[in-house]
Design a protein that fits this description.
alpha+beta; 27% strand; elongated; OB fold (Dihydrolipoamide Acetyltransferase, E2P); 3 helices
Length: 183
């Protein structure tokens, strides 16, 4: 009778340890170590997909980000989806696509998104329009945007770096967008 009890305890301990490592890796590691806090994840459940085979920086889009030093990279690349709430044209030539995330990705927003972005994730497509902001002009030189700009109400799937914008209350963004699929 003692042997089955010991076996059961060992199995429960192993399952608990594996679950603990999985949850720690998925939610608790610090930025830059391969996982995120808040949100994030290492697969397509809940925190965005991070498959390196589907995540690349086409046309070196990241090199055209205006004042890139302000973006704290939480995860080099994620994929998330949701419904476009609002599309905003910015003076730096970028377009902010405020996105109501699908439930599986709702952990990607933070309190700054709640307070300043109506709870939406900021999805930033860079260099869509010629910048009217003088210091942003050099960032868009020699780059032509190829990312489609969706309309409010459309369902989108976006891929790109998951960052905190330190110039804007540390709200969470996907910036720049590497790919955007409508539908």
């Amino acid at each position: 009778m003692k042997a089955p009890l010991v076996v059961a305890l060992v199995i429960i301990s192993l399952v608990g340890a594996v679950a603990g490592f999985y949850l720690y890796d998925r939610f608790m590691q610090t930025p830059g170590t391969g996982s995120t806090s808040p949100g994030g994840g290492s697969d397509s459940h809940g925190g965005g997909s991070t498959s390196s085979s589907s995540c690349s920086d086409p046309a070196s889009i990241s090199s055209h980000v205006y004042h890139s030093y302000r973006l704290q990279i939480v995860k080099p690349c994620i994929t998330a989806s949701g419904v476009v709430d609002r599309v905003l044209q910015e003076a730096d030539g970028d377009v902010h696509v405020r996105t109501i995330l699908d439930q599986a990705y709702s952990n990607l927003t933070n309190s700054a998104n709640d307070q300043y972005q109506y709870g939406d994730l900021v999805v930033e497509i860079i260099c869509v329009n010629p910048p009217s902001q003088t210091d942003a002009i050099p960032a868009c030189q020699n780059y032509t945007n190829q990312i489609p700009v969706p309309s409010a109400g459309q369902h989108i799937t976006i891929t790109g770096p998951y960052v905190l914008d330190t110039d804007h209350y540390n709200w969470a963004e996907i910036h720049p967008v590497y790919s955007l699929v409508i539908g």
